[in-house]
Design brief:
Elements: H1 7-10, H2 16-27, E1 59-60, E2 68-69, E3 76-81, H3 82-88, H4 93-98, E4 103-107, E5 115-119, E6 127-131, E7 134-135, E8 154-161, H5 165-168, E9 175-181, E10 188-197, E11 201-212, E12 215-229, H6 236-239, E13 251-265, E14 270-284, E15 292-309, E16 312-329, E17 332-352, E18 355-370, E19 385-399, E20 402-413, E21 417-428, E22 434-445, H7 449-453, E23 465-477, E24 481-499, E25 504-524, E26 527-540, E27 556-566, E28 569-578, E29 581-582, E30 590-591, E31 594-604, E32 609-616, E33 635-642
Parallel strand pairs: 6-9
Antiparallel strand pairs: 1-2, 3-8, 4-5, 6-7, 8-9, 10-11, 10-33, 11-12, 12-13, 13-14, 14-15, 15-16, 16-17, 17-18, 18-19, 19-20, 20-21, 21-22, 22-23, 23-24, 24-25, 25-26, 26-27, 27-28, 28-31, 29-30, 31-32, 32-33
């Protein structure tokens, strides 16, 4: 990125569609930049643990698009289930993800504000996010609205780190986050929760799920609202930072969401399921062009499974996701950014020669409906949709103590043409408790509609961003728990940013990310302890900022969760620490390192009722994850939960 950019615009960071519009309006007066990439990690190991067991036999599907246990996977995988969510009592999805290996979160001003996930140092748009198997995210902004997905609707999260374009296509450079909505098991399982907290925070959810014969169903609704905090600290307008405005008021947020899903097993060969998820957020923030928005994340999907033989499975799935946003200023309507993503997939899994072959075809159509007016600058013709077709094949096999996973994929996009990706993963169980893994993979990220066609910024000649990743891992699983270490090197090329020479987006940047991450989890004298540590060296390798650290990626982060149950009581705490970062590519705006402590306690009133109390940021630490954007101080949440024991 050219160093011509004034410091004011080096801090310009979009908060959803509205903020991108504000940034681009600023470009029309001078210049803008779109943040690059970075990624990687390292690890530290904690003292030895005493005996007890940690179960790694849960089934995961994201790492291979097929079912396997977590212990069988050759990838670095983190699983968060409903038990973890209720134990940790996170305030938001961002808070839940923050402590996982390789993950860093940037939030623009508190509850409901734009939240970005940087996985292994890569850009927020380089993380593929799915809900129940359907890709979500904005086709214009290029990332998912994580802030609008409530944790009350989540049953399970699978986070797979590393390049996965060979299975999923665009976006999976840093990894994949797949969210599964709630589906309690049992004949009939009702549930509800009610919470109150700081900043006039009110939260409630209710639902029921069950099985009837060969069918199952689940219904969940939730509502969350808060007066919030002042999203920008005073002085933002003077230095041209953050929202470019000083509006010392509380910026509230409310969210209403629902999940409906069901399925039926017709016989031993056929079964089908359908799902609907919708989250509607109303958000207020400080701003000069817009200061509030109404946003919707919506997913509708279904699948049919056919098993003609014990070693053959066919899956046909289809769905649509929507990212809809209306922006307002002082109550007046300003703009609309609605994007739709329609997807379909046919996959065949066939077992033979002691291995498993998976082949498939993916179809995706992105469509934009916006007041911005996406125009091809060469033809002056409007452009509002594109289609991507992808074919893939994957082979998995175990040879004695060694395992292999190889995959290739070809994508053909109506906008930029073809792209080939592949990956090879190898594992060796050289003892009953230790596994060595190694992998190489390529990935890509298709340019967004903003990159291609946004007025006074877009460039229809852009190529996809690409990456080449090498990784080495070692992990152990014992009676007392497990540990893992992973080191990686990722080169990312053709990064898209603003080029002052052409006054448009261009493939001018590249990044080199090295890193390592470590996990240690087990029981010590009755306490469940999980520690994660990440080390990164994310460097810009473009001409203008060669050697600079990539924005908003700390070189060191660590997290420790500790919990224990005493009869009807349970207590726990989380300590998260982050090193210093920079908010801009020029490395002119430092963000200080920080440590935050969250405490929690729960009491089982009866077999079915539980009372929980969370004290977040217990020591009232003042910190920022984005320049001039405030974060909540000390705050509490008191929650009553009901769910019959099964």
């Amino acid at each position: 990125m050219p160093s011509l950019l004034p410091p004011v615009l080096l801090s310009c960071d979009p908060r959803g569609q509205a903020r991108l519009r504000s940034c681009v309006l600023a470009i029309r007066l001078s210049t803008i930049r779109r943040s690059v990439l970075a990624t990687a990690l390292l690890t530290t190991i904690f003292p030895a643990f005493a005996d007890d067991t940690t179960n790694l036999d849960g089934v995961v599907v994201t790492a291979t698009r097929t079912e396997q246990t977590q212990s069988q996977t050759l990838s670095a995988v983190t699983v968060i289930d409903r038990t973890d969510i209720e134990r940790l009592q996170p305030a938001s999805l961002g808070d839940l993800l923050r402590g996982t290996p390789g993950m860093q979160i940037a939030n623009n001003g508190g509850p409901g504000k734009s939240t970005s996930a940087f996985l292994r140092g890569t850009e927020a748009g380089h993380v593929l996010v799915m809900i129940d198997g359907v890709k979500i995210g904005s086709a214009t902004l290029g990332q998912a609205a994580l802030q609008d997905i409530p944790v009350d609707q989540i049953e399970r999260i699978e986070i797979v780190r590393g390049p996965f374009s060979s299975l999923y296509g665009s976006e999976a450079i840093g990894g994949v986050i797949q969210i599964f909505t709630r589906r309690p098991e049992g004949a009939f399982v009702p549930s509800f929760s009610l919470g109150v907290g700081s900043y006039s925070h009110l939260n409630g959810s209710a639902g029921f799920a069950g099985k009837s014969g060969d069918g199952w169903y689940s219904v969940e609704v939730s509502h969350d609202q808060t007066h919030g905090i002042n999203s920008c600290r005073v002085g933002a307008a003077e230095v041209g930072a953050a929202c470019f405005a000083d509006q010392p008021d509380k910026d509230g947020y409310r969210n209403t969401s629902a999940t409906l899903q069901g399925g039926y097993k017709f016989d031993e060969q056929w079964d089908a399921d359908v799902r609907l998820f919708r989250a509607e957020g109303h958000n207020y923030y400080d701003g000069t062009y817009t200061d509030s928005d109404k946003s919707v994340t919506q997913v509708v999907g279904g699948s049919v499974h056919y098993r003609p033989a014990s070693n053959v499975k066919l899956t046909l799935s289809a769905g649509t996701s929507g990212d809809f946003e209306k922006d307002y200023y002082q109550g007046d309507y300003v703009s609309r950014f609605d994007t739709h993503r329609d997807v379909g997939s046919l996959q065949a899994d066939v077992g033979f020669w002691g291995g498993l072959l998976s082949t498939g075809f993916d179809w995706q159509r992105d469509h934009v409906d916006s007041t911005a007016g996406y125009i091809n600058p060469y033809t002056q013709a409007p452009v509002d949709s594109r289609i991507n077709r992808g074919v893939f094949a994957q082979w998995q096999q175990t040879f004695g103590s060694q395992s292999v996973q190889a995959s290739v994929r070809h994508d053909d996009n109506s906008q930029f043409g073809s792209k080939n990706t592949g990956s090879l993963l190898w594992g060796w169980d050289f003892t009953q408790t230790l596994r060595l893994t190694a992998s190489y993979g390529t990935a890509f990220k298709a340019p967004t509609f903003n990159d291609l066609y946004y007025p006074y910024y877009g460039n229809p000649d852009l190529k996809p961003e690409t990456s080449h990743n090498v990784e080495l891992g070692l992990r152990g699983s014992y009676g007392w728990g497990y540990w893992s270490l992973n080191a990686f090197h990722n080169n990312v090329n053709n990064l898209i940013t603003y080029d002052a020479a052409t006054q448009a987006a261009a493939n001018v940047d590249k990044a080199r990310i090295r890193g390592a991450e470590g996990v240690l989890s087990g029981h010590v004298a009755g306490w469940l302890v999980t520690g994660t540590a990440t080390w990164l060296d994310p460097r810009d390798e473009s001409t203008s900022y060669e050697g600079n650290l990539l924005p908003r990626r700390a070189r060191q982060t660590g997290n420790v969760d500790i919990d224990r149950t005493f009869g009807d009581f349970s207590v726990g705490g989380t300590w998260f620490v982050s090193g210093r970062r920079y908010d801009d590519l020029a490395n002119r705006h430092p963000l200080g390192g920080y440590a935050i402590t969250n405490l929690r306690v729960a009491y089982a009133i009866s077999r079915d009722f539980k009372l929980q109390l969370a004290l977040n940021n217990a020591f009232d630490k003042n910190y920022e994850t984005a320049w001039y954007f405030n974060q909540p101080g000390r705050n509490y949440m008191l929650t009553l939960r009901y769910q019959p024991a099964q």
